[in-house]
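Sample 1 of the test manifest.
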Amino acid sequence: MKHIGMGIIGPGFIAPHHIDAVRRLGFVNVIGIAGSSAASAQQKASAYGVDRSYGDYRELIADPDISVIHNTTPSYLHFSINLAILEAGKHVISDKPLAISAKEAAILRDAAAAAGVANAVTFNYRGNPLVQQARLMAERNDIGNIFFIHGVYLQDWMTDANVYSWRSDPAKGGPSSALADIGSHWCDLAQHVANARITSVLADLTTVVKTRYSAGGSAEAFSQKSNVQRTPVEVSGEDLASVLIRFDNGAKGCLSVGQVLPGHKNGLEIEFNGRSGSLRWNQERQNELWIGRHDQPNAVMGKDPSLMLPGAVGYAHLPAGHQEAWADAFRNVIGDVYQWVQTGEKPATVCTFADASRTCSVIEAMLKSYELGGVWQDVEEHAATIQNVEQQEVIYGK
Ligand SMILES: NC(=O)c1ccc[n+]([C@@H]2O[C@H](COP(=O)([O-])OP(=O)(O)OC[C@H]3O[C@@H](n4cnc5c(N)ncnc54)[C@H](O)[C@@H]3O)[C@@H](O)[C@H]2O)c1
């Protein structure tokens, strides 16, 4: 099998999981890492056993041995770096969200289509075996017409006011905090499993922790520094949100998202109610799929490749009773993108820049709904055309 050269830009918290995922595929060589400085890139390259390091991401993009580039930089850099990768005609795997504004995301969507390369955003929960089982059960009408999709994504890691990183800075994390960071995962999952699109939303947003205390310096998101002098920063992004949702298949929905909810670690739960049955999946019990029935006993399906639908079996790598987890799902998502790179055929499970651009529009509609006083807001996608000369120059050069 022909080996594929891969490079990664932005070696912080999530980057080693991308590296681990590609190494598990067996036919991808991790060629190089680009960081925010030559020294940090070199330190990370040596920690992950990677030969080449670059202090400037443009050097990595120009490396002829690299054909697939992963972008795991803070969200405000996704736009310029993803665009540069596409301009170079290389395959791109960006972490989420695709960009910090729907407009930027739409430009990336169009640039990806024009470049004709594999393009994907790592909404990794798509890669869970029982998520694919649920998607295929919904597709073959096992639960009838889905009329209600509801759930939560609750975390507590921002409960401490001393947690402050680029995520809380609107210039770097974007105007939305919890919704863009984790609400986007839930919205992607809802749309992917139900094969439906969110068309309008009504949102109520809250900033529970209004003042955070920055330790300055470190750009990395989950770094914990104690005994350092901290400066207060007023934050504007929501750390709690409740949203009513309408889907294009007529389904209604509701979602609560929060990152300051003590005791909740990575509590993503989603439930689909159809006319003949229900399906519920909880990320913290990801080897179980709850199947609800009105006229039969309810059931909990354990992850068991011998019982799963054929299209989902490939997402399970261990027999029943052996737990599979977050990193395994991540590997599955990355594997699907590399299948696209190898064959030129996009698997149905890949979240493309077009899909992720739409999710940026969904989040933007949630912000607008709240700003306008809590009214229904349609999800508006930015036009497929380049809107002004400046954008055209950015994408296609002068
Ligand atoms: N898929 C998921 O579940 C998931 C989980 C966590 C983070 N993410 C996403 O991954 C991205 C990164 O998040 P993180 O938590 O790893 O952040 P992080 O702050 O830990 O890491 C970002 C890294 O990028 C580096 N960097 C900054 N500017 C750079 C530049 N110009 N060139 C090269 N490197 C640069 C930083 O030094 C740091 O090492 C974010 O967009 C985030 O939303 C996704």
